[in-house]
Please model this.
Amino acid sequence: MTWVPDSKTTDQIKQDPLLGQIPAIKKGALVADSDNTLTLAISASSPLSLPWALDMFLPQLAKGADAAAK
Model:
């Protein structure tokens, strides 16, 4: 799980010869989010932002976990 500035960066991470050796990346389990709103909702959380952030974040995390379990 990481934050990236854009989807191009995610592609660069996946294609990098060294980073591509990381087991999670090999399995397609990389969760690289570029949504600034989500990042701020988690890092500068409030009682109003957390429910929304969890609704957005947990599906991404579950998808990565499912890929890692393969």
